Amino acid sequence: MRYDVTLQRCGLSAVFDLKGAADALRNWAGDMLPPLPDHPNTRTGGGGVELYHIGRKHWLARAPLAQEEVLEAQLKPDACPAEISIVRVSDTLSFFRITGPDASQVMAIACPLDLHETVFGADAVTYSELFGLKALVLRCEGGFECAVEQSFGDMVEDYLTLSCRQKPV
Amino acid sequence: MLLIPCPFCGARSESEFIYGGPVRAARPDPNVVSDADWVDYLTVVPNPLGPVQEHWWHARGCGEWLTIWRDTRTHDIVEAPDEIE
Amino acid sequence: MRLSSRLTTGGRINRDRPLRFRFNGKDYQGFDGDTLASALMANGVRVTARSFKYHRPRGIVGHGPEEPATLVQLEGEDAAGNCPATAVLLREGLSARSVNCWPSPGFDLGGVAQVLARFLPAGFYYKTFKWPGWHLFEPSIRKAAGLAPAPAQPPSSGHFEARRAHADVLIAGAGPAGLQAALEAGRAGKRVFLADEGSEAGGSLLNRTLSIGGRPALDWVANAVAELCGMENVTHLQNATVWAYREHNLLMVNERCPEQDSILERSWRVRAGEVVIATGASERAMVFGGNDRPGVMLAASVQAYVNRWGVAPGKRVALFTNNNSAYAVAADLAAAGLIVTAILDSRRHIPQAALDLVPDLPVHPATVAAGIFGHKRVRAVLAAPLSGDLAKWIRCDVLAHSGGWNPTVHLWSQSRSSLRYDEDLAAFLPDSAVQNCRAVGAAAGDLTLDRIVAGGADLPYAIEPLWRVDVPVQRGRAFLDIQNDVLVSDVHLALREGYANIEHVKRYTTGGMGVDQGKTGNINIIGTVAMQQGVPIEQIGTTTFRSPYTPVSFGAIAGLREGTVLLPYRHTPVTQWNVDNGAVMYEAGARWQRPGYFPKPGESLQEAVNRECRAVREAVGVYDGSPLGTFELKGRDVPRFLDFIYSNVMSSLKPGEGRYGLMLSDDGLILDDGVAFRLDDHRWLLSTSTGHADVVNQHMEKLLQTEFADWHAMITTVTSQWNNATICGPHARDVMQALGTDIDLSPQAFPFMSIRDGMVAGFPARVARVSFTGELSYEVNVAPRHLMALWNKVMEAGAPFAILPVGSESNHVLRVEKGFLSLGHEVDGTVDAYDLGMGWVMSKTKPDYLGKRAVMLRRAGGATRRELVGILPQDPNRQIPEGAPLTPAGCKEATEGLVTACVWSVVNQRWVGLALLENGHARQGETAHVRLQDEVIPVSITKPVFHDPDGTRLRS
Ligand SMILES: [Zn+2]
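That is the input. Now the predicted structure with zinc ion docked in place:
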């Protein structure tokens, strides 16, 4: 059916993959990043940068694409110590936004997670599945944001179009 | 479709995981162990009727390799048997 | 218009909304609120089906999913097979046809065969139609005895959908007990998922005339539904069957005709904290001669047709029962103006409360039905006193029978929770739960309304079981399973032939195996077995309750997964360019859509491939190598980790250098071949084959997280962060220069197997000198956002050198000419590096690495190995199919190898191939023989390389 949602295929974000012990990461990049989230699968934000804690000793830093070069210059992936890993992965993720009154119904088609607000709150972010593919899932204003590996972007667009009987904008 | 407890994410649908086989004996030092013991290490896989400890990878999730005890008769995820821990 | 059986008043139908429908080619009319069954009954259609095996005429027996007799096939838009007519909601324009009969149930050619064949006893199929003759019988058996055919086309409009849901409480069934449970949970603020298979809530109350607190029970239902509707935390679905109870409280729900436009069916996978099973009970049949004749119906169903649909299944009804519930039926029928000609009760002592309900009706205690007069319609029932007194015929046009009630324990049992046999109810009841679930209401054995809802008034239940009628005067066949035509005599035969276990009896007789899964008859089969073996019924037990509870269409399970999204697919930024430039696209591993080849108009595959290969060998080509798996590794222990997972030494690499290697599993199998580059002291880049990227990732992560958790190495997948255009051929360096780069391209500064960061054509790039074609190659990696722009510049810069895009077909030819491995071709679970002539990759210096000991052990056995060789067909124009076997001297003997690849070599102008051949390395120069079905092809054995054996070109 045609759900009351807006689908949006988003452009690139600046995304950096951060791995290692929290302390080591704080020592290297603490000044450039928002405080590290305390809980698994939650996020923090500040200075235009969001930090997603999406695995054990694993974070994603995300910012508007315009900040990519600045962030790269600050984080210095090539120069960071052996204890931590920083890799630019901006191109790796294709982001989609599903917003509107029926957004959670569309997500129920795509994703096995319980996304009820009592379980998946405003600061929640996690890797899960979208149409059977590994995907980052988080809330955004009025709905949900999801990201899949870039090569699957066309397929997910196809699938979302079928789910909602409308094309993304 | 099981509900598998991930130490990082909490309980998640089995569809997010990839099965990694039962937990096997520790890898012996190949330069010390006999041929027969090495072959046993490679080929003898726990396959009990009852609780078995197994690896699962939260591949479409946080990426954690975790272990659970699963009762092969019921699919129930159970506590580790007393004699193990 | 004949609406002969419709009562003038009553029923939950909308008489202002008539609906036209077709059944077996004839037009009829019913009302909104009808099922196909109630509408047919209202139209006086009494013979609605032919039976599965004997093609006996059958009518409508039940009123819900238990219906064993009338299965229909829906035609047109919503074509579907094997639907019980009782479960098909009437809609305008519905068209249906009976299954199992041709040309119509009234005149059925299969029924003529019944006269000839007489009898098909239990196990008939197993005994008769078996190997080697089965294929002779199969088509005609399937046609004569089969159920409805699958629809030829998917629905032309509308689609299926599959969803997930999560709930604190899932409640299966919206009868009084389910509604009560939903109200309690909903008021407590829990997330409630209430699903009911019927078209409206109320369950059995819809079929009866009960009261709650002195008011009609359906008022209570309406209030409950309204209150639930007002709760945001409650999802309430009708026409939604909970059909499976899986592990960890996952339940499958199939919702038919959801309110939304264009959705045909929606399936739900619901994960629930707690499950409440409020699935009610279903009435079971009595087993007596002629119990399958049209007009022999379940008592509660007759009651339902009268009360819910305002239809009289007959004018003169006789009842046959062993329990109290039929008395309430009789009272309702009499109140609706039907004539009740007799109530036959097998019990000697009938509870007074039951008799009080029917003070004016003729009750015959200790009397059973022992036969039916009438073929296509009941005309009389033979009432046989158990005392042995003279049996007599009693006129009736419907015989309504009740063998008691079975709590609907399907979901309960699917959850693996246990059952116990209850002597008082003569039924199996939920016992102890093993998942977080509970049964309530009739499903838990509380069969009357007073036990479920406060203020509910109902006749107390009492039963004396009668598993089958067994009196000397009995006449006609007594069916245990009407859908599968299983007779009492079939069960006796199965027992005589040694099938004593109830599960074996089921399979041997097919009793309980139909679309209805024996909802009305299974208990009688169990009872019959118990009687015959002289043991209590609980000792026989039940057969296993399996999902689905009622049939589910495949479409609902698949959801949206059809057409273009049937399987996942992956694109690179160049995919669209490939399509636009005429590439033939197909999947080439790990879901990537890749160009196979780029034919010009009128060009064959072979011509296109030859042209692309010549470009690479003589000038320059470019291909999109983006799908190769790419991983960045970081950490102090990466060198020792790589030395452990690759068979050769990687730790000695200097920054900027790379090395080809084999990755083995510990049992000696080749997992992958790829290249490891060292970027700096602690950063490494692994390039894996496309098809094994995920497996390699899993392998590395498992080792690092489980076995070597103290090793410090971190892995980041960058397959889609670095896409590449691989420029290959003698002019590759010229093209690179034309693109413009700050990287020194000289072979001294940037040799084969090294990697450099720099700018190429104005883009930040990471360039690797690897070669999968055997020619000078530059793998130019850029961010995917730049790949298309880079690609255009490559085509432009390469134009003076006649650059061509190269597809995967040409890549295959080029790698075979060089004898480079392809994991799916030359490598299977038996092949090791030595067999491939790559002993050099197995480190002699490392004391341990994955797979070392296993390979050594296997080789120490001294068995003959199949080894990689090149083959040249002695006729240079003879192509050999890939996979063709090699046999000693071409004789009809066990194979000594196989051809793994065979291609037309543009440099050699002949067919060349690779093969795995026993002792192949020692047999170079000899002749081997490919044995095809009707031809033996001699081939010369060579080294597995047909071009530039010293590798001067790729190092140039
Ligand atoms: Zn996890």
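The CA atoms of residues 51 and 82 of chain B lie 11 Å apart.
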